[in-house]
Automatic annotation (TrEMBL):
Pfam families: Lip_A_acyltrans. Keywords: Acyltransferase, Cell inner membrane, Cell membrane, Membrane, Transferase, Transmembrane, Transmembrane helix. It is found in: Cell inner membrane. Its main location: membrane. This is Lysophospholipid acyltransferase family protein. InterPro entries: LipA_acyltrans. The chain crosses the membrane at residues 20-39. GO terms for molecular function: acyltransferase activity.
Length: 291
């Protein structure tokens, strides 16, 4: 069944990806009306999350954030589809790294990097990073159940030469390359929700007590990799900037979970400034501590 679905859907996605961005954004605007006003996709989850995080805001203010979020979400859907075939020239114009030169220092000093990021802005266009550095680029992902769609995701994210590795294999892959002296930069979405009972630490995220993913920090200390934060900002529709923000050059010198806290501090600043660009449709606070 999944194979049949893939056979039916893939040609449509490929044809969409070949369309100019202007047409895709026109379709995104139409999708927004359907998703927000007609279907109400995860609307209850979004409004509950916004109420939890911004209790001081009025209902009208939260509604305005939600509307802007859904417009952004629809843009992300079509930008992800565009990633199937987007050219390097076009994505370099639309996803601009402001300070790629700081990576040279890490490379010259024999430092591999773990790059922490959140579901903010556009995380699907980060594959262009591989073209901007000497490090060998990796990105961590959770494999999909469908083999066909999983292969499509990997192919899309490896469009510009990076290597996509499953979350269960990344430690072994990086350890082997570390032993061979290969310098790597590994992109990890670190605001994921750990499984119930499978986490080591709780902290606050946007002021709410929740389990937090600590695997990036633990891996950094184990392999002595530097840790950076990728600050992605949406400048206007279809255009983003990304900035490398150093968090911990020598992770073993930091207390347990301190680096994880630093990551969430950086992400929270962005969310509070422009909340509409965070992924509110996920149940990020479902395991929160309740009064």
């Amino acid at each position: 069944m999944q194979r049949l679905l893939y056979i039916l859907v893939y040609p449509i996605l490929w044809l969409l990806s070949k369309m100019p961005m202007g047409i895709l954004y026109f379709k995104s605007s139409a999708l927004y009306i359907l998703v927000y006003y007609v279907v109400g996709y995860r609307k209850k989850v979004v409004m509950e999350n916004l109420a939890l995080v911004f209790p001081q805001k009025t209902q009208r203010e939260r509604n305005q954030i939600a509307q802007k979020f859904y417009k952004h979400l629809c843009d992300i859907i079509f930008e992800t589809i565009k990633a199937f075939t987007i050219s390097e020239k076009e994505i370099r114009k639309r996803f601009v790294v402001t300070n790629a030169e700081i990576l040279d220092n890490y490379y010259e000093n024999d430092r591999s990097i773990l790059l922490m990021a959140g579901h903010y802005g556009n995380w699907e266009w980060s594959g262009i990073l591989n073209k901007l550095m000497q490090h060998q680029a990796h990105a961590v992902y959770k494999p999909l159940d469908s083999q066909q769609f999983d292969a499509l995701v990997k192919k899309t994210r490896e469009h510009f030469g990076g290597i996509i590795v499953s979350n269960k294999k990344i430690v072994g892959v990086l350890f082997r390359k570390w032993k061979k002296g290969v310098k790597t930069l590994t992109y990890i979405l670190s605001d994921q929700t750990p499984k119930a009972g499978a986490y080591k630490h709780r902290d606050t995220f946007m002021g709410i007590d929740v389990p937090v993913f600590t695997g990036t920090e633990e891996l950094a200390k184990k392999l002595d990799f530097s840790v950076l934060y990728l600050k992605v900002e949406k400048e206007k529709r279809g255009y983003y900037t990304a900035t490398f923000v150093p968090l911990a050059d020598n992770p073993k010198e930091y207390d347990d979970f301190q680096i994880t806290r630093m990551f969430f501090d950086a992400l929270e600043i962005q969310i509070r400034e422009k909340p509409e660009y965070y992924l509110w449709s996920h149940k990020r606070w479902k395991l929160r501590k309740r009064n």
